[in-house]
Write a sequence for this structure.
């Protein structure tokens, strides 16, 4: 945490899109506190460091779970899953998010001092002060949540601990030896920052008068648009803050933490239902939400609640993930465990009793399977992919660290219209990093509502059954959904919600944390499936996971507990 730079970087902002621009060299002596606390661009550059540290959807942490295997032997998540996780080695650590906290704390000091003139008009200037401080408070809460998600846990005493919470900028030679708050104190601190941010931020950045919130109703609309217009619609807004509150509340309400106590399921359900009713309830579930990444048109679709800016065209992820025959390196291989979580097309689990044929395993399956995973015989990347006998370089284990180890390749999050040609040229496409989807919000409501009162418990007019019915209908499950009608208990609905969450949010960075918050097994052996030329055979032990029992709570970095003795380590590390 003491690894902070003395001088701040200048980051340019235009039309609400966060971007770094190559600037002419500047005398670094100008970039001291006196300078950045009076220069608008430099001051805002400090705030934008908080955006630079947002979670990466393309981290593929699923390869540390039962959903996937990483083909690269030195991959950090692979090494962690195979037994290397420790306080000295933790690729999933988020402790460095505190650096972003100190950036935004410095920015809050500057805003509170009132030394920056954002605009010559006094009223517009004050509106900027409010909005930018709201952003900073929200980002401070979010980065603390990242640390909480990765490092909250049980101390040696058995007490649930959260994290240190920093509300002031601390200089490099200051006191960082701050004890962890209790879990509840940490959650309350994050919630307070979110709530304080909500008092300052617009619900949405918009050029429409009808979208102006009541607390801004007395402001001249022309001036309002200068500060809160649509040019800022990728910045954190009140709507996004509420969604993040719901995510936090569901996380800590889960069995590994408060286990339904303290009312956090109610908070998650109330906040998510409020947001979902503002888009029409379950009828607002985006029809094109299944493949939100698949074309340029989807990048600004109704499914995306919060995303990054759209960068230039590239084929970076496709080169990593495409099968070898279409010039990829096959890095992430979904497991047969995940494949079997996709039900039959009629919605019933994929069992022999329900019509699953082990020798024709991909027929009459949930349509999402074909959309998200390359199975034997799939057309993808400009070719037909054969992962079994006769499959040449796509065949299981044909080329070390390139060919699949499970019998499957990844399709989710990849642009199907990218082509990687044999001569090295590519047909590139655009990608975005999605921070929050509306489908996640629907699943938050479903899980929380079911935990409060069961499958048909209504929260502001929406039940878990309503949500799951809409999601499965969109997926292409045969209607009427007979299997859903058989779900009558809270326990059965819990299993179904968790499975739908596994499918819908696959490869978006959720599974790694979901297994921990639910307290379910981290050591399910990764399985494969292979056509040997005569039959499909299961590969029962592609990768054997080796997490200790206390890995439900991740370690605090060893270097931090050595430097700062007030910071207690989680039990077992």
């Amino acid at each position: 945490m003491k690894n902070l730079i003395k001088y701040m970087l200048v980051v340019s902002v235009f039309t609400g899109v966060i971007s770094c621009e190559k600037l002419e060299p500047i005398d670094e002596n100008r970039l001291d506190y006196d300078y950045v606390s009076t220069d608008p661009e430099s001051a805002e550059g400090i705030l934008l460091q908080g955006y630079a540290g947002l979670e990466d959807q393309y981290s593929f942490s699923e390869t540390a779970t039962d959903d996937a295997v990483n083909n690269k032997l030195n991959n950090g998540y692979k090494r962690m899953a195979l037994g290397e996780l420790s306080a000295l080695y933790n690729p999933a650590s988020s402790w460095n998010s505190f650096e972003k906290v100190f950036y935004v704390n410095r920015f809050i000091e500057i805003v509170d001092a009132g030394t920056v003139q954002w605009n010559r008009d006094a009223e517009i200037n004050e509106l900027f002060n409010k909005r930018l401080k709201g952003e900073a408070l929200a980002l401070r809460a979010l980065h603390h949540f990242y640390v909480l998600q990765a490092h909250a846990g049980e101390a040696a005493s058995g007490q649930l601990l959260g994290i240190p919470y920093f509300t002031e900028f601390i200089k490099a030679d200051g006191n960082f030896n701050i004890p962890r708050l209790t879990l509840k104190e940490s959650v309350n601190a994050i919630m307070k920052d979110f709530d304080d941010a909500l008092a300052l931020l617009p619900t949405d950045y918009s050029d429409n008068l009808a979208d102006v919130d009541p607390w801004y109703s007395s402001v001249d609309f022309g001036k309002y648009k200068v500060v809160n217009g649509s040019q800022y619609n990728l910045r954190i807004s009140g709507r996004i803050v509420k969604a993040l509150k719901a995510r936090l509340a569901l996380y800590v309400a889960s069995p590994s933490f408060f286990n339904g106590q303290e009312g956090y399921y109610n908070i998650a359900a109330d906040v998510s239902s409020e947001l979902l009713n503002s888009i029409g309830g379950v009828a607002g579930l985006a029809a094109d939400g299944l493949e939100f990444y698949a074309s340029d048109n989807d990048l600004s679709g109704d499914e995306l609640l919060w995303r990054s800016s759209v960068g230039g065209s590239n084929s970076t992820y496709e080169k990593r993930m495409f099968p070898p025959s279409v010039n990829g390196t096959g890095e992430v291989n979904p497991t047969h465990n995940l494949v079997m979580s996709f039900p039959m097309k009629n919605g019933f689990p994929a069992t022999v009793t329900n019509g699953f044929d082990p020798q024709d395993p991909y027929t009459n399956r949930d349509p999402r399977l074909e959309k998200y995973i390359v199975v034997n015989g799939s057309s993808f990347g400009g070719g037909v992919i054969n992962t079994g006998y006769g499959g040449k370089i796509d065949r299981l284990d044909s080329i070390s660290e390139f060919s699949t180890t499970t019998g499957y390749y990844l399709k989710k999050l990849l642009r199907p219209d990218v082509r990687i040609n044999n001569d090295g040229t590519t047909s590139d496409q655009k990608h975005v990093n999605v921070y929050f989807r509306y489908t996640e919000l629907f699943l938050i409501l479903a899980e929380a509502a079911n935990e409060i009162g069961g499958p048909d418990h209504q929260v502001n007019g929406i039940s878990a059954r309503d949500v799951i019915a809409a999601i499965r209908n969109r997926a292409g499950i045969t209607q009427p959904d007979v299997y859903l009608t058989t779900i009558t208990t809270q326990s059965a609905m819990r299993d179904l919600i968790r499975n739908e969450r596994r499918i819908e949010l696959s490869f978006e960075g959720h599974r790694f944390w979901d297994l921990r918050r639910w307290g379910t097994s981290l050591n399910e052996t990764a399985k494969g499936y292979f056509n040997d030329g005569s039959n499909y055979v299961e590969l029962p032990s592609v990768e054997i996971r080796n997490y200790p029992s206390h890995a439900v709570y991740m370690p605090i970095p060893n270097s931090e507990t050595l430097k700062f003795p007030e910071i207690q380590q989680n039990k077992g590390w």
